[in-house]
Amino acid sequence: MNQVDLALGLLDHQLVDSDGQECGKVDDLELDLKAAGGPRVTEILVGPAAWRGRGRLGRLAAALVGGQTVHVPWAEVVRVRAGVELGRPASELRLGRGDERALRLVERIPGAGL
Amino acid sequence: MSKIFSVALGIIAAIGGFVDIGDIVFNVAAGATFGYQLLWAVVLGVGGIITYAEMSGRVAAVSGRAVFDAVRERLGFGVGLVALVAGQLVNLLTLAAEVGGIALVLQLLAGLPYRALLVLAVLALGLVLWLMPFEWIERVFGYGGLCLLVFAVAAIKLNPDWGAVAHGFLPSTGSGDLAVYGYYVVGLVGAAMIPYEVYFYSSGAVEERWTANDLGTNRANVLIGYSLGGLLSFALMISAGALLLPHGISAELLGTTALVAQAPLGTVGLILALIGTLFAISGAAIDSAFSGAYSAAQFFGWRWGKYRHNAGAPRFTLAWIAMLVLGFSIVVTGVDPILVTELSVVFSVVALPLTYIPILLVANDTAYMGAHANGKLANTFGIFYLVVVMAIAAAAIPLLLLSNMGQG
Amino acid sequence: MFLAIRSERIPSGAWISCLPDRHGSVRRSASLLALLAVAAGCGTPEELSKQAEEVQSVAAEGSLLAHAASEGSTTGVFTREHAKALRKLLRKLRPAIEDRQLAGLADRTDAALERLEVGDERGPGRLEEELSSLAEAVGQLAP
Lengths: 114, 408, 143
What we know:
A: 3 helices, C: mainly alpha
């Protein structure tokens, strides 16, 4: 895959974990340019800090929101179809923590599970 | 057979759900100011939302992506973020206007103080969203909104000059202040094409797991649903034109709208008008709160979905709660909801290209859409409305200022 | 280095993100300015004819409302609340009215609406006539 296909095919796509749950977007990619056989993706970067690599607006957004980058090794990707499908649950990959934190708030309201 | 039945139900709910406070304010004011001369603008707007919604429904069915997913994927982080921020500001203003409108209608029905009714409205909306299954919400508020059909009866009973009405469907520059006329054109088209409708529709299509097999349903929904919804807008303008214009009554209050149904039809007309307005505006408030949550969740990649029951999509849930709270805080300042309504429509018009261009681009993308990418017909309408949308977006603020917000 | 490679090799993507972006930020600042301008100067008209139009509109609408009340084809709550809202409109406009005749007519309209609001027993029928003739009088004021 050349870099253009890569970027258009992966960047900003939805990440889906092994339970079919959404767990973020492909915010940026880490490439190994010196690999034999051409550049390849080594990691998927997820999280607001990863927006720093996405132009001026990305840097502004990253500065405003803060947060960390989660590095997802490329080996975790099982399939690239509609979304980028991962082989493990989001929690194991430290993804979807925003939803976990939010869940603690939401659970406190009666009737949350209805 | 049951599929036809459920499509029909969906269409009926869509008709009742088409009208929101922006449509009410602008259609009645246009009728009171220009009589039937602006009916063509409503047709223009309805054509726009049909084009716009069909495309986003098709994108959702074929690619499995709702609007903001598709926008971010095909157009990148930067463009997507700008579209998101603009879209959210508009969603929020719209929501604030609807919440204020609910309080105004409740005041006319029950007479309690405005701010207390604001609190009641927000709490009631929150409770409904938290507890009621979504299928019920759509039906209850959609059918309740059908009470607005009373305006169709009122329009007929008021015995308008049907020749003049027919004439109103032909585009013209109207008689009277050109800036005010232009402002109403912008407002009417903008109110018909308000973005939250599209975000909501496409997200719903993804949640219903539409596929290419549902493209027929998609077209039926938008064509029939929005056209019939447009009839409600016609009814509002025609009845307002028949009653208010001859009396020289300008329509700055929501109660004036109710009077339009009351005069020919008595107490029954009044109550149906108020109930219909209440349900239509409440439905719109719910839809715009959800649109805010959908947009954020789809852009950032969170779990989302009204069918996921609160704890199943925590950030999505917090997002619509936040929308309700923020919307409330805008109107609790005591700002006139009718003013907020007009501003929300005008700003939504200004942001319309940002919402619409990405959809047009994605709908044409064969890598995404395969054989279902826009054909000649879709692109003819698509490009026509692109021009319309860019023209009114550019003209909106100048006309707002020149016409002194439609006052002349 | 990572950034440089991507922006070099993906010109079409960069192009797409440039154009609407600029429009968006220009449009947003124009919107904010407009909002401030509107908030600062909108609403109350200064011209006599515009003011007369508004007073006439309120009086005419008050007459319609009084007619409905006299027929009993409305709810008491609606009559009260809508009369209140009409008076509020008038109150916003009143300070700007300089013409003495118009001011007098506006005050009489307000008084009639107040009686409608509190449910004057003398009958909304009379209020209907009164408001209707007030509307006419205002109409004759402005050319």
